[in-house]
Write a structure and sequence with these properties.
Blueprint (H helix, E strand, L loop, with lengths): L2 E5 L10 H19 L2 H11 L3 H5 L8 H7 L7 H22 L1 H22 L11 H14 L4 E6 L2 E6 H18 L7 H18 L25
Antiparallel strand pairs: 1-2, 2-3
Helix pairs in contact: 1-5, 1-6, 5-6, 5-7, 6-7, 6-9, 7-9, 8-9
Length: about 240
Amino acid sequence: MVMPLYDEGPQGRSMRPYATYALLLINIGIFIYQLTLGDAAAAVFVTTLGFIPAFLSGDASGTMPAGLTLITYQFLHGDLFHVIANMLFLWVFGDNIEDAMGPVRFLAFYLLCGVGAALGHWAADPHSVALLIGASGSVSGVVMAYLLVRPCAKVTVLLVYRPVRLSAYWVIGAFVVMQVLNLTFSRGDNVAYWAHLAGLATGAVLFPFMRYRHVALLQCIEHPDEPHVADAPRA
């Protein structure tokens, strides 16, 4: 697995990424809360707030309205690696996307990508009773948005236990290809690859419309002395 560590920061950032910080704190805080519960209580908590396709299809019903779990499932995680991996992707890529659309639109974008991811997972098997949890779908949308706006930015990743600096299109391209390959060849590993792909697709559709109008798509940041789009007036 290619794990991002940090990216080259754009010049002229217009604001601190408070929405990204808030999402990180909420996800980590809820995971810590899960750890404080006993096994039985934690299972009930996750099952109640997680997304189950059969509930949305009307095959069964849960404690929470099925439509509401399209949001709540995004803030639950199954184990420490699950939450760390998702939050690391959000930490590396989220601030750039928040800067490209502002905190309010970024929050809406993040949640909508998660909803799109869950609906993609549902469409793949509408009658499944398997529980879907995690921010992976939401984060996948953020990752795709990063590819659309900063494909040439340098991202340092952990590759075979050593840091390697690559262009974003290689890092994110590898992430996308891995989802397709895992969906094709992996069986029974309990990972919702359809949700990842649907999150990527949702991000690709939404980002061009939700970004600030002055933020150019497919920027290639090769010359540090060039003015950054963040210096332009806001729409």
